[in-house]
Amino acid sequence: MPLDSYVNGPYLGTTRNPFSYEKVEQFDRDVSTPWLTLDEITDQLNLFGDTSQDTYLSSIELATRMAIEDYLGMSIFPVTYQVYYGATNGMSGSQVCLDLPEITPGFGGVTINFVGYYDTSNPPVFNNLAATNYFYDPTGNKVICGGMPNEVNQTITNPIIVNYTTSFNNYATYPVIKQAGLLLLTHLYNNRSNTFQGTLNEIPYGVAALLRPYKPLVL
Fold this sequence. Notes:
The longest helix has 19 residues, at 54-72. The protein has two domains: 38-76 and 174-214, no CATH class; 77-170, Sandwich (Immunoglobulin-like), CATH 2.60.40. Helices cover 25% and strands 21% of the residues. By secondary structure, the chain is of the alpha+beta class. The protein has helices spanning 3-7, 38-45, 54-72, 175-190, 205-211, and strands at residues 21-29, 79-85, 96-99, 110-118, 126-128, 134-137, 142-145, 160-166. A hairpin with a 4-residue loop joins strand 6 (134-137) and strand 7 (142-145).
């Protein structure tokens, strides 16, 4: 198809993103609560009675937990995201559906911290919607608003924002998930730099094999 068809034709302005959001940021994250206990770790590494490395083991435990969360797109402990939407989501006075990213909700669901928009002031001022004007739809992983005010700014790129937190996910207690965590931690402990055997190796295949059934399918 000629380039002109994409620049001036029916594909103008289209993207491969099937959802209504334009940008996602990780806003906050628990980076202190341990997931794997020191007893579990020292048993895995056969470090019985050795407490000299506890600080280091705690640091790679945190790295392991964050890697598992990122791989599965789930919250072992709370993670807060901020999602941005274009002005087209606020042009209609009727009900508005704001898709959330395909991140596995926690066992306790999702908490919507606020939904708001930038208005037409100069410079634009951010306003929170009343909590009674929206709700979280767990069946579609989206926020449904009763409508956006007319003063949603139509000039700035992404004037509508949803801030939400995913809570603890019950997957984190599954033995298969914890075993994957212990395997990855062992790999990090034994390889304190990139492994090299002719080519750089990725994380052990056993980790991906254990986690793959719990990783959401993205189409």
